[in-house]
Design goal:
431 residues, alpha/beta, Aspartate Aminotransferase, domain 2, Aspartate Aminotransferase, domain 1, seven-stranded mixed sheet, four-stranded antiparallel sheet, 14 helices, 17 strands, 42% helix, binds pyridoxal-5'-phosphate
């Protein structure tokens, strides 16, 4: 017989699990997942509003619903704040995620049966760019650019030749696992010469772009830039699209509702505006600190004896570091061991891994955007590398490393690069 469980006990469990998660991930772990971040307390406060209960189908001031006068103004204002940071006033804030942003742009640029040429998976293309993801779901054929292993990047000459042969409707650059900027200008020229468009997926690097530490693809020939608003850009989970091509903007704006969403999760918008203001004020320093922390962590890991990718290219120019951990037992084992010691990373395919290796790939992917936001700097990067080496190279006790991780996190409980509002701290969430 199963134990009798009262509704109160179930409720206690639900709230208990949520509290336990908050305490673990906000206060006790070093989070090195490259696609995550934390909002400031002020942005969190703006996030928790009645907007989360409401609908506003259509565009600002042209809605299909009543009751939208404040979200209309907010949506326009938020785009206005972002506009100089993105070098365009053609901005769509309604995509509720980066994947939806990609879907909306891809679907407008191509019909089922058409082709798209995408960056090689080894150079970081996201699953949504491939036949296994959104592109495939839309019936668009995925043709991959060749890979230049020496530069860990797109093989530019090969890609240009391929574009001239295939004559795709569009090309996609940008990715999820990349250390070095993709060749935007060269691919833009090639795709434009055959009448196609260039989409740049800045999901990971939006925060670096608005902070000036990564080239803005819209200034180098991209027609549209899709993004997530919660990776290096430390806002609420969501997406956006910025355009230089006005026609494309109009078509996507007309179809995103009703093709890809009805509710655009309105409570994201004021939190996005607060985060954009924070990035306007502190984004340049934040982006610079992220990139220098990433490089410092890569150098420290290499000095500890890890095999860090990209050594002859300076390791990284993004927020990411890639480590080949085959000698430490492979990506799956290493990611699990690190988790047991409260260091959170994800296992990742490295350029030489076949797709089947996805369950136990050669590497781990590390991102430093969140620890940077918690205020960590070069000496903490050295300490993180030391903790990882203690655990994975020198065979230290898991519980001992975990205790040191918890101690280290105690000094970093305030979100940096944030506007100070008269709000409670993030710690109140976990009490
Ligand atoms: C994370 C990511 C996405 C998907 O973003 P979501 O907001 O999670 O839907 C799309 N493209 C790239 C390159 C990504 O890294």
């Amino acid at each position: 017989m199963p134990e009798a469980v009262t509704p109160e006990e179930i409720l206690g469990k639900v709230l208990g699990l949520t509290r336990a998660h908050n305490k673990w991930r906000l206060l006790e772990t070093i989070n090195l997942i490259a696609s995550e971040n934390v909002m400031s307390p002020l942005a969190l406060k703006a996030y928790m509003s009645d907007f989360m209960h409401r609908y506003a189908e259509g565009k600002p001031f042209k809605r299909y619903y009543q009751g939208t006068r404040y979200i209309d103004e907010l949506e326009v204002l938020t785009a206005e704040i972002l506009s100089p940071m993105l070098s365009t006033d053609l901005i769509e804030l309604r995509p509720i995620s980066g994947t939806i942003a990609n879907a909306a742009v891809f679907r407008v640029l191509a019909e089922p049966g058409d082709s798209a040429v995408i960056a090689p998976v080894q150079a970081g293309a996201h699953v949504s760019h491939t036949k296994f993801g959104t592109l495939g779901a839309l019936g668009i054929k995925h043709v991959e650019m060749p890979y230049d292993a020496e530069n860990m990047n797109v093989d530019v000459d090969g890609a240009i030749k391929l574009i001239e042969e295939v004559k795709p409707k569009f090309a996609v650059l940008g990715g999820s696992v990349y250390l070095f900027p993709h060749p935007v200008r060269e691919i833009a020229d090639a795709i434009h010469s055959i009448g196609g468009k260039l989409v740049y997926d800045a999901a990971h690097v939006l925060g670096l772009i608005v902070g000036g530490a990564w080239r803005n693809p819209l200034e180098h020939g991209a027609d549209a830039m899709t993004a997530s608003t919660h990776k290096t850009f430390p806002g609420p989970q969501g997406g956006l699209i910025a355009f230089t091509d006005k026609n494309l903007y109009k078509k996507v704006s007309k179809t995103i509702f009703p093709w890809f969403l009805s509710n655009h999760h309105l409570h994201r918008i004021p939190a996005l505006a607060v985060t954009a203001l924070e990035m306007r004020q502190y984004g340049e320093k934040y982006a610079r600190d992220i990139v220098s922390n990433a490089r410092k962590l890569a150098e420290s890991l290499a000095a500890e004896g890890f095999r860090v990718l990209g050594e002859n290219l300076g390791y990284t120019r993004s927020h990411q570091v890639l480590v080949d951990v085959r000698r430490q037992g492979g990506g799956a084992r290493v990611a699990k061991l690190l988790e047991d010691a409260n260091i959170i990373v994800n296992k990742n395919l490295l350029p030489w891994d076949p797709p089947e290796a996805v369950k136990d790939p050669s590497g781990i992917r590390i991102g430093v955007q969140e620890v940077t936001r918690w205020g960590m700097g070069p000496s903490e990067m050295e300490e993180i590398a030391r903790l990882m080496a203690d655990l994975l190279i020198r065979g230290a006790d898991i519980s001992h490393v975990k205790q040191r991780v918890i101690e280290l996190r105690k000094e970093f409980t305030r979100v940096h690069y944030a506007l100070e509002g008269n709000v409670e701290t993030i710690l109140d969430l976990v009490s």
